[in-house]
Amino acid sequence: MIRSDQLDHSFVEEVLAEPGGENLLTCSSCGTCAATCLVRRYEPSFNPRLILRRASLGMREAVLSSREIWLCSACDLCYDRCPKHIHISDVMKAMRNIAIREGYERPGPVATVNVQRCVACGQCVAACPYNAISLQTVTISRRQKLAAQVDANLCMGCGICNAVCPSSSIAVEGYSDQDLYSDLRTSTHALRQLAGKPLASKVVAMVCQWSLRSEADTSVASDPPEGVEVVTVPCAGRVSPLLVLTALKEGADAVMIVGCDREECHYRKGSQLYERRQVVLSSLLDMMGIEPRRVRFAQMGSLDRRRFERLIGETLRDVPCEAAV
Amino acid sequence: MVDAARHPNITILTYSEVDRVDGFIGNFRVQVTKKPRYVREDRCNGCGECARVCPIEVPNDFEIGVAPRKAIDVPHGQAVPLIYAIDIDQCVHCYKCVSACGKLDAIDFSQQPEEVDLDVGSIIVATGFETFDPAVIPEYGYGVYPNVITAMELERLANSSGPTVGRVLRPSDGRPPKSVAMIQCVGSRDARFLQYCSGFCCMYTIKNALLLKQMDHNLDVTIFYMDIRTPGKSYEEFYNRAREEGIRFIHGRPSQVTEDPETHNLFVEAEDQALGEVIELEADMVSLSPAAIPRADSEALSSTLALSRSPGGFYMEYHPKLRPVDSPSDGVFLAGAAQGPKDIPASVAQGSAAAARAARVLLSETWEIEPIVARVRADRCISAQGRKCGVCAAACPYGAITVVQGEPAHITQAKCHGCGACVAECPQDAITQDHFTDAQVVAQLDALLKDKPEEKIIVFMCHWCSYGGADSAGTGHFEYPASSRGIRVMCSARMDQDFILEAFRRGAGMVLVSGCHTQDCHYISGQQVASRRFDRTPRVLERIGINPERFRVEWISAAEGEKYARVITEMDAKLASLDKETLRAEIERARPEIARRLKRWATVPGMAELLEEEEVLA
């Protein structure tokens, strides 16, 4: 039971005054955001409608102490569909800012920097969709040096920084280079076990965890056809050319990278970043004498249904088995 | 209102009752009783000196009991005309008012009720509404907890000319509240009380909430609602503004209001449906938005004016979409909440429309009516012979018939809409309807049943619904057997039971009576007259010796083509299952009895040549 003493109108005022929070009271709890939200697939407790509702009632404690306010990745799919035109991710950001001021911290994982190895090239700073990284002077063993630093309250843990880092000195726990190469090797090992079988071809699919929106597609990813191995990545933007080349080197006939539609990327610009990388990678493959069609990139829209299955079919048909490296 | 009072062509009679209305469109005679004010209208200038000196305080209806009034007073500050009146039941005859009035000499204790007769061409009924008494809902505590008030009381408190000069104060301690909860749908949308939605409470509650918020921005205002209904122009925008101003909207109907007996603060319990959690809100004051209900005297006025009322009790319009301003009585129009709960813009629109409709009558030299009116054959009417009857007057949905014993029934043709209820009900066949005479209907039966009558289903259809239903069965390509033969009359009320007997006498296999569903009846209550009549028919048939399964009654709307086709298909199957020899034998046995019952027809003009058989004419 909610009681009057839990309703703190000053919290409402505070959110309204915070940049981004102006539209809090416009919400009429229709639930379009909750039905749109991708985070809900993985975090059933996350419901933007409920967070806004609690905030508009002034339930300060319940809102600020919740894990949920940190989960919105500002993909803004809901913003496009909101009938009241509420920029929900901005409202979330406003509430996070208040939470940070009141001493709450984002629950992990976030990107961490190996300061020793960081060469301060600034690639990660430019790539980060959330402006969470900056170059700062740090002191190591009494020597001062410039190194990337991550603002834990802004980082969403997408790992895009890791994909662009030339020195492999920034990583998100669970999706570090070490983790991904290990996943990849497990997959290619499994594919190699199939040698001698009359297969169409051997495919490694690196699939963004947000890109498959319908049950019909996720079920294919969790139980792929023979000859296809799925490696889950947080975002297409996390996939580096080196990861793709490694898959080819380890015996994959084809590599599929599946991300979100460029307008619907869960981490705002990860899919676009990979899209550009793919162009460069194609000409690179051509130069190396590798058929560029062996590396394929697809962007899945939120309205796509049963497309993943079709993409796999096309890849199996187009790329012949045992294509020589 | 002031402009209306000044207009040379407008006379305003306030403090008056309509006793009697006679006549018809263009020619009404209205009898009004003007109650004595004990103040002369021609002398009172509304200065109010009398009220200032009056020592008697009585409860004030306009302030809803929040403040008293004097025994000599005006209903409210903006009353038109601004003429004082003495509440004679409360007056102690101290005559202080007489001295206060001085030279004006307007006080007159000798006044008596005055009868006024008005000749008018049209009448507009704009008697408004009342509000539901929330005290009958014990869980909200109205009348028990001092700080639970109605929205109307809140309006008076917030009004700058109200008893608190615009300061909203708690009744329990006179202090301004820090939080106010407003509860919607009190009595309305509630099967225990009133089914309908009052429609305008959402908007005035939002208005009140914004008003309170403007007076004190720190005031905490919460509205508990089941649905917020904002269908009018720019209403949704107003609602959005209220949300953005920080008024708390909770989607959930409160289950109860309880009170802290010491502080008189209130605790409202409801489920916040958006969160799916129960919320207990403490408020200094609770305002209830009660349902709009018909005025207590609306039934009395409905009999004075021959108006009918909708299920909710409000006056019924002629047609909900096409004639929403007209009443079923020609020349009587409806405006405002008397016809149904509505807000100010809708009331003004309906009022303007009613004025225009009324003016149309006043500006016409003649008034065209449908050429299907009923006529009395004085020679057959038993009332003329001094006997007691009045069946026709009771059946008429329009009050168009007057029966005075010793004189033939009189039909005011301008009031007759041609449903034919009186024609069919008259036990003497003393009333006929132009274009739908008994002879015309029987001639159709004669033609339709010439050949193989036992294979035919005679269908009586009403013009407005079931005829349309049969038509839409055709346009909708619903297939049904070709055995049915239709006879159209204006209303099921015109379908004389004698027609059914005559159809059987002529050997019809089956008879179907069809008409509008009761709520769709074009003639107010014509269908009900028919429904009562045909409830008895199966027993009559049984007595005569005709299988009542050969007779069926179905109410079919103009949209129910599918139903029409289904009913005919079922009846055709039934007819096929009955042995033709038995059917014929049944008819043969029943013919003498039917003929005996239809004997009256022999003397009805035009019938003789249709009833050539001896048994009827004998």
Keywords:
heterodimer; A: 325 residues; alpha/beta; Fumarate Reductase Iron-sulfur Protein, Chain B, domain 2; Alpha-Beta Plaits; 3 domains; four-stranded parallel beta sheet; two-stranded antiparallel sheet; globular; B: 618 residues; FAD/NAD(P)-binding domain; five-stranded parallel beta sheet; 27 strands; 28% helix; 20% strand
Description:
The complex is a heterodimer of chains A (325) and B (618). Chain A is an alpha/beta fold and 325 residues long. Chain A folds into three domains: 4-101, Alpha-helical ferredoxin (Fumarate Reductase Iron-sulfur Protein, Chain B, domain 2, Orthogonal Bundle), CATH 1.10.1060.10; 111-172, Alpha-Beta Plaits (2-Layer Sandwich), CATH 3.30.70; 177-318, Rossmann fold (3-Layer(aba) Sandwich), CATH 3.40.50. Chain A is 38% helix and 15% strand. In chain A, a hairpin with a 2-residue loop joins strand 3 and strand 4 (143-150). Chain A starts with a strand and ends in a 7-residue tail after the last helix. With 618 residues, chain B is α/β, with parallel strands linked by helices. Chain B folds into four domains: 2-119, no CATH class; 130-293, FAD/NAD(P)-binding domain; 369-435, Alpha-Beta Plaits (2-Layer Sandwich); 438-617, Rossmann fold. In chain B, the strands form ten sheets. A five-stranded parallel sheet of chain B has the order 10-17-11-12-13. In chain B, strands 25-24-26-27 form a four-stranded parallel sheet, sandwiched between helices. In chain B, strands 1-2-7 form a three-stranded antiparallel sheet, with no helix packed on it. In chain B, helix 13 (497-505) packs across helix 16. At the A-B interface, strand 1 and helix 4 of A face helix 6, strand 13 and strand 16 of B.
